[in-house]
Amino acid sequence: CKVLIECANGYSEVSVLEAYECSAVFRESVLTDYVKITILEAEKGMKYDDVCISEIILHGCDFTEVVNGI
After folding, report:
1. What does the alpha-carbon distance between residue 16 and residue 66 come to, in Å, rounded to a whole number?
2. Which residues of 7-37 are buried (b: 16+ CB within 10 A; e: fewer)?
3. For a pLDDT cut of 90, what percent of the chain falls above it?
4. What span, in angstroms and rounded, lies between the C-alpha atoms of 67 and 39?
């Protein structure tokens, strides 16, 4: 799928993620208060019309509070 990754500091980039083990690597280090991920495109599933995301890991982040909402 294709995703748009946006940060509070104005940094953004579009990444194409492959099925299963996929990752997006930023072109530069980013210091930000939040990260917003928007799904721009996805392949049609064989059974369901949705996108399944089981885990998102942000390396190098130190979160001190829980953020709600998807």
Report:
1. 28
2. beeebeeebebeeeeeeeeeeeebeeeebee
3. 6
4. 19
The helix/strand/coil state of 65 is coil
37-59 pLDDT, tens digit per residue, is 898 988 887 888 778 777 777 76
Query: What is the biggest distance separating any 2 CA atoms in the chain, rounded to whole angstroms?
Result: 39
Q: How far apart, in Å, are the Cα atoms of 48 and each of 29, 41, 51, 54? A: 36, 15, 8, 16
15 contacts 47 by C-beta, under 8 angstroms = no
- Tokens representing 39 are 């799904």
The answer to whether the beta carbons of residues 3 and 39 sit under 8 Å apart is yes
